[in-house]
Amino acid sequence: MSTTTRRLAATALATALGTAALSACGGGSGDGSAAEDSGKPAQKTVTLVSHDSFAVTDAVIKDFEQQSGYTVKVLKSGDAGTALNQEILTKGSPRGDVFFGVDNTLLSRALDNGIFTAYEAKGLDTVKPEFVLDAQHRVTPVDSGDICVNYDKAYFADKGIAPPQTLDDLAKPEYKDLLVVENAATSSPGLGFLLATVGKYGEEGWKDYWAKLKANGVEVVDGWEQAYNERFSGSAGGRKAKGDRPLVVSYASSPPVEVLYAEPQPAEAPTGVATGTCFRQTEFAGLLKGAKNEAGGKALIDFMIGKKFQEDMPLKMFVNPVVKDAQLPELFTRHGAVVEKPETVAPDTIAKNREQWVKTWTSLVVK
């Protein structure tokens, strides 16, 4: 997930969606030090390497520990790209047993570098087929989320303008100087939004589209935190910072988070989602090649696609389950957006073109 990992924190949203790390981590004490404190032999510890945004309820991890006999240690390693780079550098002598957090924008890079051992997880048949992107089962789908344009409901109500719903809408004159996006070279949601336009308009058309957005006054900032919590007028942080952009690239799960962290909680989310602007992200876990505790790693991956873990994720990491029978919390079903037809780009296509796409985008939009 680049320098803006994904989730929202102190101001409601910095922990859940965009950049900053979530504070929770798995295992005994909740600080990732359970292995050292437990007194258990090393082979009874299973180490999960992850980006900083990993979070799980302590009781859920303890349930796994009690059932399996393993103690979980969570090793957080920065944003997803940084964490993946470290595992590539330590290929064959990994820092842990399981890696979680590689998404479909980075998947081919991880697979091409051979850092995972193939493992078909128990319960994989419960995962929705559209999320299974590696036929060799070197990685297992764990969660999904949609990068989408969010809008400030109050702004559009006050102006008597319908909020945009599609990518085409964003280039229309009535939305001039209203949109803020993250830099595709430095931000995961920024890259995801670029990929949404590639998926929608194709290899040639996306460039023309961004030329239209630039002419229509799109603003580019480095990362999600600045875009959402400073420039966007619809978020709690943005209102405090006097942000004046009522359109922002964020996530389909941003509105429920605005409700969850508000005091008092409003009956309706202050923000909405333009569901025709979205790119689907899927995150995976994989058994690291050379893992010291391969059996424990397999057990942990099995657990991560189990119903208990899957149903814990929405209010901890603000992502969607990938298994068929997992239920979303009422907060999500009431305030979240259902994205029926998100844009997607094949991981191998992303791998082949990402660097050039970002360079071209930078020359078109930033310079």
Overview of the structural elements:
Mean pLDDT is 88; it is low at 1-41. The chain contains 15 helices and ten strands. Strands 1, 2, 3, 4, 5, 6, 7, 8, 9 and 10 form a ten-stranded mixed sheet that branches. Helix 7 packs across helix 15 (347-366). 38% of the residues lie in helices and 18% in strands.
In short:
38% of the residues lie in helices and 18% in strands. With 367 residues, it is an alpha/beta fold.
Class from helix and strand fractions: alpha/beta
- How many β-strands, per DSSP? 10
Indicate the overall shape: globular
What is the count of helical runs?
Answer: 15
Poorly predicted runs are 1-41
Strand content: 15-25%
Query: Largest sheet, if any?
Result: 10 strands, mixed
**Termini distance?**
24 Å
pLDDT average, as an integer?
A: 88
Please estimate the helix content.
Answer: 25-40%
Rg, nearest Å: 20 Å
Order of helices and strands: HEHEHEHEEHHEHEHHEHEHHHEHH
